[in-house]
Amino acid sequence: MVSMVILTLSFCTKKDEPGEEEQTGESKADITLTAGGEKYTIKGPCGWASAGGNRYIGANDGSNSLKTFSTFFNLQEPPKKTTTYTLVADSFDEDPAHITMNITEIKNGGMFEYSSTDNSGKLTLEVSGKKITVKLDGITLKPTTESSFYKSLNTGAFSQTGTLSGTLEFYVD
Fold first, then answer.
1. Which residues have a Cβ under 8 Å from the Cβ of 53 and sit 6 or more positions away?
2. How far apart are CA 103 and CA 105, in angstroms?
3. How far is 47 from 135, CA to CA, in rounded Å?
4. How far apart are CA 162 and CA 81, in angstroms?
5. 151-162 as b/e, with b when 16 or more CB fall inside 10 Å?
6. Considering only CA atoms, which of 127, 74, 69 is closest in space to residue 99?
7. Residue 164's closest CA among 91, 129, 114?
8. Whole-angstrom Cα distance, residue 98 to residue 120?
9. What is the greatest pairwise CA distance in the chain?
10. Could you give the CA distance from residue 140 to residue 161 in angstroms, rounded to a whole number?
11. HEC string of 64-108?
12. Measuring CA to CA, which residue among 26, 52, 40, 5 is closest to residue 141?
């Protein structure tokens, strides 16, 4: 999972197709994780990507590329119609209706990380032509408070379960 965090998210581009106004625009992510009364935000580009055989929706903060959001799918390509998925903890789960999600940031030799559990909720990808909208409201993620490789930065308020809010919007071919 750590290797996925380090990927450069360079998959967000502006689509220019004349005569299809709803099909054009730039990708954008506006994500807030709230835990223990504190807020952690990621605002920046997002989109569908593939790396190392994994397919995912990724976003990184516009001012810090090591501050990332990822949702991993068991699909070869994004859905063509609005579809709802169930969040799980097991990153090896191969059910196409199951996904995993995480937020990570690597800084100063430590890692801030939140991951989905089997009780995190559901995520719907709303598809309208080439535009995909993802609403994160109400999804819960669990903090990683122990790590074998990095020092955990999930302390204080961020050692508690977090609730997501916000939206991702991007375009696919």
1. none
2. 7
3. 14
4. 29
5. ebbbeeebebeb
6. 74
7. 114
8. 11
9. 53
10. 7
11. EEEEEEEEEECCCCCCCCCEEEEECCCCCCCCCCEEEEEEEEEEC
12. 40
* Domain boundaries of the chain, sorted by first residue: 2-6+27-171
Amino acid identity, residue 31?
I
Q: Is 94 left (phi over 0), alpha (psi -120 to 50) or beta?
A: alpha
Q: For the chain of 173 residues, list the mean pLDDT of each consecutive stretch of 10.
A: 38 38 74 98 96 93 96 94 97 94 95 97 97 98 89 95 98 91
Q: Are 2 and 152 in contact (CB under 8 A)?
A: no
User: How far apart (Å, rounded) are the C-alpha atoms in residues 23 and 171?
Assistant: 7
Helix (H) or strand (E) holding 124: strand 122-128
Tell me the C-alpha distance between 50 and 126, whole Å: 20
Q: Which two tokens stand for residue 152?
A: 């955990």
Q: What is the spatial distance between Cα 88 and Cα 29, in angstroms, rounded to a whole number?
A: 22
Residue appearing with tokens 């750590």: 2
Question: What pLDDT score was predicted for residue 23?
Answer: 53
